[in-house]
Amino acid sequence: MLRTVKPKNARSKRALEAREPKEVEDPRIAIFVKGTKTGEVLNGVMKDMMALKRPDAISFSKKNVIHPLDAQNTASGSSSTSSLEFWSSKNDASMFVIGQTSKKRPNDLTFVRMYDGKVLDIVEAGVENYISMESIPGPKSTSGHKPLMHFASELFDTHPRFIQLKSMLMSLFNGEVVESIYLKGLEHVISVSLAPTPATLNTASASTESSTPLPKVHIRTYTTRLLASGSRIPRVELAPMGPSMDLVLRRHTNPDPELLKQAMKRPKLKKTDIEKGLGKRKKNTDVDEMGDLRGRVHVGKQDLSKLQTRKMKGLKAGAFEDDDEDGSDYEDSDGDISMKRQKLS
Amino acid sequence: MDVSTLLADHAEKLKSTQVETENALDVDAGYLTVTDPNPIETDSYESSLETHLLSLARTGTQALLNALFSLPTTSSPDGPLAQLPPPTTQLPRAKPLPKPKPLTKWEQFAKAKGIQGKAKEKRTKKVWDEERQEWVNRWGRDGKNKQVEEQWITEVPMNADIDHDPRKAARDERKARVAKNQKQHEANLAREQKARGSVSSNPEREAHKKELERTLAMSRTSTASMGKFDRKLDGERKLKGVKRKFNPTESSVAAEAKASLDLLTKMNSEARKARITEAQRPSKKSRTSRDAGAMEDSVLNVRKAVRFASKGRGGVALGREKTKGAVSRKRGRR
């Protein structure tokens, strides 16, 4: 655990304040860590992923003994998550991409997501059929531009492993909330699609941890070319940009439910946002085409039998029965007034 | 003029951007993300993988761009900016939500009274000077708050003292303002610390510390050299405002006798006895201090409230008035 530092001058104070929690968060800074052994493939993968993630990417180019998914008491002694936590606090980073190759798990890429300086969840995948960015000719995207993301398969909505993968990749590349964007600056797409869903997964999607192998994940990146279509909306053509790779999902950890609950907390919506129509929808109000706010008011069912119609002497109930009309009338009205008073008070 | 050809043309143009899929694509414009919920077709996947992936990605991207280009835009110096809606996908945060800052005493009061003051808008460092027609510092070097002190000529009021120095008066006033603000700031910080319940907010310990410091100061001043040659303790602060004072060695017998008698009566006095007994019963003392603390915590200033309610005539008058009022009201009801 790092000791809390008290800033000694204005510059370090500003730097510390920039690291404090914010309501609308900055993009996650990712650290690309090399494990004890990384092959040519993984070096290329990490380099290209860094090119996509820049400027929010930090490279740890030296070898590190790190096995976040292995048990605590490995040969290295300390647990690997503790060093992840240390790096996270030192660099203000909340994502890690760890590359490591071994005989048992060749070309292993591990994505680690952090919350509040602690490990939230981990996804491990093997890289196959890697084609680097350099080997594909053509224009490349400018670094710092936001990518579009495309996920194709119904499993991204149904299968927990792929939901987690989608969330992880979105956190890595696109997890920043922005208010507005320059549309001509959308230069590239990261497309993530799956192999056809095996029949076993299709039928019993809920019963998860079966022995059937999960479908392969194809990650492709394309540059976009916007062609004039004659209308406001352009027609898009894609050209491969690289890197492209296939991932085979391996081990993973699920987030700690308590930690996840904290991480999913949203800021309270401001009053102006609620008026704009965000959050809980206000009932029975709508805006008509003139821009006026219209409301509907619910009134309970009316009892029409007690409706006061035109008063006529001949229609009075006791008109022909009682002699002392005036007296009874007076009493009635008095009683009414007293009732009203009671209601008011 | 035949409109049908124009319409057909337009429809043709639209066709190139339209996306037709079995299930509608799920577009999250806030995160610039599109999810295709249609199952992958095995035939096209197996026949040629790359073309299949490219066509899938093109369809998805087209759908996403259709959504993005139909968003409302605002103009900016760099070109039109599309206003993105808030994202629909929930991603975990990287850090916890920021904690709300505790209110200062003034903010508490303003909130209780429904006052909206200048506190809302942030005070800028620079202010506009009408005379000089330029932006000047609000404080600091050549600050606006030092204008009176630094101007080369100052009007002196008619009835001013002979040694009245307008520059010094203005400076003292400014220094007093700064000191007051500093004091209030510290009080706010202390209240925040207390509310947070930190270690140093142990009242007994604090009281003990204060008492020790007092005793130490007294013991220092009880030597003839006012503690100048005493052994210094670690972290001991230098006493301020301590001066040696020597009475004349020769004084009249009457004065000497009076001083001695005074000392004796002082030692035997009722006030001293009362003080001693009070010191021996610390429970009562602590209770009163706690009460004072409770009073201090509340926003309402009781003394001012009584003065306001009684229109400046005091609490006794208020009580008398209240009883009288109750009696008269009773009478009135009858």
UniProtKB/TrEMBL annotation, chain A:
Keywords: Nucleus. Residues 1-21, 270-345 are annotated as: Disordered. GO terms for biological process: maturation of LSU-rRNA from tricistronic rRNA transcript (SSU-rRNA, 5.8S rRNA, LSU-rRNA); ribosomal large subunit assembly. Residues 28-258 form the Brix domain. InterPro entries: Brix, Rpf2. GO terms for molecular function: rRNA binding. SMART domains: Brix. Residues 320-335 have a biased composition (Acidic residues). Residues 291-304 have a biased composition (Basic and acidic residues). PANTHER family: BRIX DOMAIN CONTAINING PROTEIN, RIBOSOME PRODUCTION FACTOR 2 HOMOLOG. Belongs to the RPF2 family. This is Ribosome production factor 2 homolog. The lineage of its organism: Eukaryota, Fungi, Dikarya, Basidiomycota, Agaricomycotina.
Automatic annotation (TrEMBL), chain B:
It is found in: Nucleus. It comes from the Eukaryota. Pfam families: RRS1. This is Ribosome biogenesis regulatory protein. It comes from Lentinula raphanica. GO terms for cellular component: nucleus. Belongs to the RRS1 family. Keywords: Nucleus, Ribosome biogenesis. The keyword Nucleus applies. Involved in ribosomal large subunit assembly. GO terms for biological process: ribosome biogenesis. Residues 83-101 have a biased composition (Pro residues). Residues 161-176, 183-195, 203-214, 228-239 have a biased composition (Basic and acidic residues). InterPro entries: Ribosom_reg. Residues 74-101, 150-251, 272-299, 311-334 are annotated as: Disordered.
